[in-house]
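Worked problem 6 (solution included).
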Amino acid sequence: MELKIKAVSPKIGGEIPFPYYASAGAAAMDLHACLDEPLTIAPRALVSIPTGVAIALPSADYVALVFARSGLGIKHGITLSNGVGVIDSDYRGEIRVGLTNLSDTPYTVQPGDRVAQLAVMPVVRAQLVQAEDLDETARGAGGFGSTGN
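Solution. The predicted structure is:
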């Protein structure tokens, strides 16, 4: 699958790399902060980080998903402000990463820092069928913690 990517900042490809897969087995590519200067995220603050790139997914058969970087979350309490970012196939604007600081310590993002991961996945668009009843299962309507966890 070919993914078209466009630099929307002159820093991309020079000071700041295009997104890339960090290893042969990586499922997602790293997104970098395209900043002019360091940006400090105060405890429990929300920020929007530009990446300097835009993409063109080839069709509605694909979605790009922005995920948090586990190291930032575990080591510093930095995670995505919206859980997972969804980039629809018809979006052509700059990819931005919403971050939040869950820790009690300010965290500074430097220009070029890896701030998130971008994965491209297939999409299945469901055909909704209204129903009066749903098939029975062993779990039924058991919700949070109903399976013992």
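Discussion: Helices lie at 70-76.
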